[in-house]
Q: What sequence folds into this?
C-alpha cells in the first residue's frame, strides 16, 4: 500500500550486509542496470569515511509479501548507491584517481617502527591524527578505524509496506522521473572553492541582467554561471583552455585565485555604461553566451596595454559598423559562423581579430602587433595540425530536430537541446572517423549524451577510438545503430571495470 511507509535508520555496514545476503535486492524488474562511473563510486565512498558529515540521500525501499508468506524487499531509489557500496565492501573495488578528495584523516593508535601500538607511562594507548590516501585502496586496505567509520555511517530508508509488484514498479517510475542536471548545472558542482563568489557575481552584478542577451531561462539552466567561469578561464588561463564546463570548473577550483573573479566583477561594472540594453542595444547584442569569453579576454588585454575603459567603450559602440572589416582575409561575420565556438583556436581567432580592429580604431602604433598576431595564429594552427585529430570534413556536423527527437526518445526526454548541441561538438573532438560519423551521427550523439549523463564521457572517448577501427557498414536505421553501439559500449565498460 503506497500510503503506508516507515522511516528507519541503519548503518552502511548493516545495510550492505542485507544486500549481500539478498535480504534486500536491487534487481527489481524496471530498475536500470548499474551504470555508475569509477568517479561516482569513489566519491560516494569518500562521503562515508569523510571526517566531515556528508549527507547521503535517503534510500527508498518497497516490501512485497509473496504468496508463500516470504517478504522480499526491493530498492526503489538508491540502487546505484547501493550497488556501489556493495562492490566496494565485497567485490574489491579499488578507488582510482578520479576522486574529488583523496585524503581523509582519522584518530588512530601511534605505532612504533615495528607497527606495534605505543603506550604511555600509565599503560594507555597513545593516539595521533593520521592521514589516509584513498587512491588505489580497496576496502581490505582500510585501517580498522576507517572500516568502522564507514560501516557506522548512517543511512535513512523510507520503507513502503505491503506492496504489490505493480506498486513497486509505480514507485520506481515515480522516483526516477526527475529532471537531470544539464551540462552547465552539473559542471558547477566542481568549483566548490569559488562557488559562492560566482553566485555573488551572478546575483548582484546587474551587467548580466541588463546589458547582455542572457535571459532568465538561461539563468535557470546554469548558463550565467558557465559564462562567468568561461570568462575567468579565457582572461587568465587561456593557454589551459578546456572545452567542457566541468573541466573548466575542475581547473579553476585548483588553480584560480579570488582576485581573478574580483577582476571580472569589476570589468562587468565598467561595461554597464556602454552596454545597457535600453540605451545601447547594439552593444548588449554583442554579449551572447558564445562570445563573452572573447570580449572579456580582449578587455583585459586592452586594459593591460594601457587602453582606457572610455576608449574601449567607444570601440564597443562603433563595432557594429566594423563587422565586415577584413583581417587576414576574414571578417567577424565569417568567424561567427564557425560552429566550434568552444574551441581554443576559434576563441583566439576572435580575440586576435577584435584586438586588431581595436588598435586600428584607436590609431595606436602597433609596433609589429599585426606581425605578432599573424605569427601567433600561424603557430596556433601548426600546433593544432601537429597535435589534434583532423576535423570531420565534407560531413554535415550540425544537429537538427531529428537528432534532438532521437535523443529524447532513446536517452532522456528532458535533455536540453543546447546540451545536445554541446555533446555533438564534443563528439567531433573525439577520434571518430568520417565513415562512422557520416553513417551513425544521430546514434552517436545519443550515445554521447547517454555516456555523459552517466559520467562516462571519458570512457566513451576511449571506446569510440577502438570501435571505429573495424570501419564497418552500418544500418540506415539509427535506432538499430544506437542499440548495437550501446551494447558494445556497455561491454567495453564491463571489460574495463567501469560498469556491471
A:
Amino acid at each position: 500500500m503506497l500510503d503506508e511507509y516507515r522511516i528507519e535508520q541503519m548503518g552502511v555496514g548493516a545495510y550492505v550486509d542485507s544486500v549481500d545476503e539478498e535480504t534486500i535486492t536491487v534487481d527489481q524488474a524496471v530498475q536500470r542496470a548499474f551504470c555508475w562511473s569509477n568517479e561516482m563510486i569513489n566519491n560516494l565512498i569518500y562521503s562515508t569515511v569523510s571526517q566531515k558529515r556528508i549527507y547521503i540521500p535517503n534510500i527508498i525501499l518497497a516490501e512485497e509479501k509473496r504468496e508463500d508468506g516470504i517478504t522480499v524487499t526491493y530498492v526503489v531509489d538508491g540502487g546505484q548507491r547501493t550497488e556501489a557500496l556493495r562492490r566496494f565492501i565485497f567485490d574489491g573495488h579499488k578507488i582510482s584517481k578520479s576522486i574529488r578528495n583523496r585524503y581523509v584523516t582519522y584518530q588512530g593508535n601511534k605505532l612504533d617502527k615495528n607497527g606495534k601500538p605505543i603506550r604511555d607511562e600509565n599503560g594507555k594507548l597513545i593516539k595521533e591524527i593520521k592521514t589516509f590516501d584513498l587512491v588505489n585502496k580497496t576496502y581490505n586496505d582500510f585501517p580498522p578505524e576507517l572500516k568502522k567509520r564507514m560501516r557506522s555511517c548512517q543511512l535513512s530508508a523510507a520503507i513502503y509496506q505491503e506492496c504489490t509488484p505493480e506498486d513497486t514498479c509505480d514507485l520506481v517510475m515515480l522516483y526516477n522521473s526527475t529532471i537531470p542536471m544539464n551540462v552547465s548545472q552539473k559542471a558547477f558542482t566542481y568549483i566548490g572553492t569559488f562557488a559562492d563568489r560566482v553566485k555573488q557575481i551572478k546575483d548582484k552584478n546587474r551587467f548580466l541582467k541588463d546589458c547582455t542577451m542572457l535571459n532568465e531561462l538561461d539563468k535557470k539552466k546554469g548558463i550565467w554561471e558557465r559564462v562567468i567561469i568561461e570568462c575567468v578561464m579565457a582572461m587568465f588561463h587561456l593557454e589551459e583552455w578546456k572545452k567542457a564546463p566541468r573541466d573548466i570548473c575542475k581547473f579553476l577550483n585548483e588553480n584560480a585565485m579570488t582576485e581573478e573573479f574580483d577582476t571580472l566583477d569589476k570589468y562587468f561594472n565598467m561595461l554597464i555604461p556602454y552596454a545597457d540594453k535600453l540605451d545601447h542595444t547594439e552593444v548588449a547584442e554583442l554579449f551572447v553566451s558564445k562570445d563573452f569569453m572573447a570580449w572579456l579576454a580582449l578587455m583585459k588585454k586592452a586594459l593591460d596595454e594601457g587602453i582606457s575603459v572610455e576608449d574601449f567603450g567607444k570601440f564597443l559602440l562603433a563595432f557594429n559598423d566594423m563587422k565586415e572589416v577584413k583581417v587576414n582575409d576574414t571578417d567577424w561575420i565569417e568567424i561567427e559562423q564557425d560552429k566550434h565556438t568552444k574551441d581554443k583556436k576559434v576563441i583566439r581567432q576572435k580575440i586576435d581579430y577584435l584586438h586588431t580592429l581595436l588598435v586600428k580604431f584607436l590609431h595606436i602604433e602597433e609596433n609589429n602587433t599585426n606581425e605578432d598576431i599573424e605569427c601567433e595564429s600561424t603557430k596556433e594552427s601548426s600546433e593544432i595540425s601537429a597535435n589534434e585529430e583532423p576535423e570531420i570534413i565534407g560531413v554535415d556536423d550540425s544537429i537538427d530536430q531529428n537528432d534532438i527527437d532521437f535523443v529524447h526518445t532513446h536517452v532522456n526526454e528532458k535533455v536540453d537541446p543546447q546540451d545536445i548541441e554541446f555533446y555533438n561538438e564534443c563528439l567531433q573532438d573525439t577520434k571518430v572517423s568520417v565513415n562512422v560519423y557520416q553513417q551513425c551521427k544521430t546514434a552517436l550523439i545519443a550515445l554521447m549524451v547517454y555516456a555523459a549523463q552517466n559520467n562516462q564521457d571519458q570512457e566513451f572517448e576511449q571506446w569510440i577510438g577502438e570501435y571505429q577501427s573495424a570501419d564497418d557498414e552500418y544500418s540506415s536505421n539509427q535506432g538499430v545503430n544506437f542499440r548495437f553501439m550501446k551494447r558494445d559500449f556497455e561491454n567495453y565498460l564491463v571489460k574495463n571495470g567501469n560498469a556491471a
The mean pLDDT is 86. The beta strands are 5-11, 24-25, 59-65, 71-77, 103-109, 127-133, 154-163. The chain has three domains: 5-175, 183-387, 401-495. The CA atoms of residues 207 and 410 lie 39 Å apart.
